Amino acid sequence: MSTLAAEEGRPAGGGAVPLVSLRGVTKTYPGHPPLTVLKDVTLDVEPAENVAVVGPSGSGKTTMISIMGLLDHATRGEIWIDGVNAATLPEPARARLRAESIGFVFQQFFLLPTLAAWENVAEGMLYQGLRRGVRRRRALEALDRVGLSARASHRPGELSGGEQQRVAIARAIAGGPRLLFADEPTGALDQASGHLIVDYLQTIARDGTTVIVITHDQGLAARFARRISLLDGEIVGDEGSAEPAAGTGVGDERQ
Questions:
Q1: Which residues pair with 186 in a beta bridge?
Q2: What are the domain boundaries of the chain?
């Protein structure tokens, strides 16, 4: 359970409530006329599901994930994350919840070229208030989970595209998030590397982290247990569900 959820006295996932809940979420950008990119979306995602959100360009999938990941605000509706109504939180509390509970992987790797792989992973935990030694240990553990222990001291320029994306995944999971978002994580990779990345994401879900992937690739989406289809800002399909896996919690090592 996140600290914020505990402070509110609410359950944070488990069997009590969905890990993520959208209730009547709408996103409209001002203009003449205004542009509505999400339309009254209601959706629940359970702990340890592995979900593909699929749709053509302009369907609203990136906007929906940005709102679920607390990177953007909805115009209207409720966003419950880890037992907390994030739509009502002030910005510092949103940032805190995001740091405690959410990890992100993007199509571009966003690695710092002068830092070793483990240092890039450790940088992702700066805002969690962890000591450097704890961050280093967790970074090495996360790299081991994605099969990169032997490359931990290599800089991004010494790694292949697939390896760089695995470093980015390690960075996203090192802090022990309950929820991982991946936005077109295979878009910059060859097919073999892309399949490997999906394998790692599904393993992470089996270990207890909820994984939600954005893709326009129907073939890739078919590899996920649940597939949510968006079109013109509305959910037009929702197939399958994952059996939640029992994950292991990460102890609080802030000092």
A1: none
A2: 47-70+91-239
pLDDT digits (tens, 9 = 90+) for 218-233: 888 998 999 999 999 9
Domain over 47-70+91-239 is classified CATH 3.40.50.300: yes
Amino acid, single-letter form, for residue 43: L
CA–CA separation, 82 and 7 (whole Å): 12
Q: 44-71 pLDDT, tens per residue?
A: 999 989 999 999 989 999 999 999 999 9
CA distance 213 to 65: 9
What pTM did the predictor assign? 0.83
Instruction: Sort residue 4 into left (φ over 0), alpha (ψ -120 to 50) or beta.
Output: alpha
Listing DSSP states for 160-228 in one string gives -HHHHHHHHHHHHHTT--SEEEEESTTTTS-HHHHHHHHHHHHHHHHTT-EEEEEES-HHHHTTSSEEE
